[in-house]
Amino acid sequence: MPRTLITLSAALLIATAQAAQAQITPIPDARAQIPSTQLVPQPKRTEFPAGTLALTGLGIRTVGKAPELGWAARDLRAEWKARLGATLPDASVGKPAIVIGTLADADLAAKAKAAGLTTTATEGYALWVDASGAYIVGANAKGAYEGAQTLRQLLTPAGLRFARISDSPALKERVAMIYLDQYSKGVNDALIPMLSALKYNAVLVMSNYVQWDTAKAGGYANPGGASKAEARRVAALAREHGLEVIPLIETLGHVQWMYYGGANKDLYQDPDSQNPYAYDTLNPATYSRVLFPIFKEATEVFGARTIHIGHDEVRNRDRFPARPNGKAAGFEKLFVDDTVKIHDYLKTLGVNTMIWHDSAFSDSVIASLPARLPKDIQVAYWNYAPGNDYPIVGQIAKLGFPVLGASWDEAGNAEGVAKAVQKAGALGMIQTRWTGYFGNPSIWDGQAQQGVAYVRAAGAFWNPDAKPVTNAEALYRDLYAPVAYKATAGATVSLKPLATRSLTDDDEKGWIGKGPDIDLRNLKPGVQQIGAYRFDISGAVMLKGARGAVSDLPTKVRIEIGRRADAVAFLHTTGWPSAVARENIGQYEIEYADGTKLVQPLEYGRHIRAWTDLLPTSMIPAPGWAGQTADGLEVNIPVLEWKNPKPSVVIRSITLVSEGRNANPTLLGLTLIGGQ
């Protein structure tokens, strides 16, 4: 064979695959969940004297009979079980205790006064932990419950951190939006306790597609909706976690729900619509056949004191008005008459009305339409852009309406609107969520950034003057699926022999070839704690991709392991993002000593994402390293923990494979968890 062909063949072989025996170093804390020191929401006044209240002999005692006190004890016991795998018993005479009560108890009121921590604000509480025990004294029972949520965050494996806290919420209403669909139980059973831990005090429940008896009888009950029994169960669960339940049943617009299966065609606002969006407000059957019976069912099922009736984006789709009689009346009259009719009916049920602001308070109608609405209608002003100035909040309030702000998931949005609401003296805030009527599971996997926003918003709603919540992604993951505070032994794996790129790029031949200002030099080498995991950082196993800068790299790399493990943690990323969500960009091939193989696919956004992609759409990967490039670009590297279904069998090797797409897999750290 000619020398040139031999050289070319060798080069192709190198570009196709590499393999090496990894250096494996046992460590006692391969994975270690560490309690956060950040309190969310941030209390108004905090002091943290040195010291810890030991757990040995510690019990719990409630003073009073209010249900909230029992809920507080329940939540603390659940925290002990989840974090420590231990039982928090009833308090014993003569031993330190967690005491929970209110100012209604003279002895506790005197103790709080002596401690200099008394607060009389609604939902306020005093909390202190010292060598004598832990005390939570609420201004009322709900305040004591909120104080328990703070105490949970003081728990460490060694005991409760000493603290002195006096606290109360800045905003009266702190609402989080949730959904009811066929996946409700698996999601809401995790979300509701999380939301109460974050000190929300109400949930706005998207309820269009609940399988109401009225909808079943009318032939438009969607099978993807939750049953009435599930709606009732979720409402009870919310109330038992201190959350008022506000059903959201979209009306006037967004009413595709009432036309499911071809039903109610006679109620179309626009008879020519191919995808009907609004209803005919001048047809009495709209109310007698559909809306009023469903509102009555919802009031009973949810125990609702307020129902949100939507009324947003009314003219965004179909012609409105479309029918001749509607055109003669005009939009404002149709909107006002419909809103008043529903409002007055809900009043007969003892229920308040809430609407979105945009159709009734837009620039084109704000001078005339609001004056024709009842002033006890609660108006939710939504604005999903970050900022500091939202003057319409104050404008709506000056028109005489109770106002709530409404935010979404972009960083800075909830924080800015909450400050505007506080300044205007408005009712409170709603953290909206728009994950689709039947997309509940996406709050964990698919649109998880909207779950992360719950955490940031909770901090802003309780205390708008506090600094924004940091590390919200990790907090959301840990609150939704709590992990025990313990260390698990394992081993770090050095990738140095297999590294194809350095983390620094002084000569435009390292990292992604963009020079020293756009590299990972701030991810320092050596064994270090990254998130809940310990990794040995020594370089990047970057594989081939579609970009010219990485077109000559290997398509696969094999790492020889020769060890058992219960799980494997991969600190990994891609050099560039994928333009396609959930695109398969590669895989890990796990080969066992018995000759069997398993494959862990790498779907972009679900298992792995680019170092410059900060949007956490899935909680399958855990937050890992976060930092900046030399020129100030925010970057991050997530961690995928792969649970080994065959922990008793030795893992012979792990092979990382690239599909050669724009997003090219890049492994920065590998740690074995458990095993031997």
From TrEMBL:
Question: Could you tell me the EC number(s) of this protein?
Answer: 3.2.1.52
The family database entries (Pfam families) matched by this protein are listed as: Glyco_hydro_20, Glyco_hydro_20b
Where's the Glycoside hydrolase family 20 catalytic domain? 226-386
Q: Does the keyword Signal apply?
A: yes
The chemistry this enzyme catalyses reads: Hydrolysis of terminal non-reducing N-acetyl-D-hexosamine residues in N-acetyl-beta-D-hexosaminides
Residues covered by the Beta-hexosaminidase bacterial type N-terminal domain:
37-167
Which Gene Ontology cellular component terms are annotated?
membrane
List the catalytic residues.
E313
Record key words, sorted: Glycosidase, Hydrolase, Signal
Give the highest taxon in the source lineage: Bacteria
Q: Which InterPro entries match?
A: Beta_hexosaminidase_sua/sub, GH, Glyco_hydro_20_cat, Hex-like_dom2, HEX_bac_N
What GO molecular function terms would the record report? beta-N-acetylhexosaminidase activity
Fetch the SUPFAM superfamilies from UniProt. Answer: (Trans)glycosidases, beta-N-acetylhexosaminidase-like domain
Signal peptide start and end residues: 1-22
GO biological process terms, semicolon-separated: carbohydrate metabolic process; glycosaminoglycan metabolic process
Which family is this sequence assigned to? Belongs to the glycosyl hydrolase 20 family.
Q: Supply the name of the protein.
A: beta-N-acetylhexosaminidase
Q: Which organism is it from?
A: Deinococcus marmoris
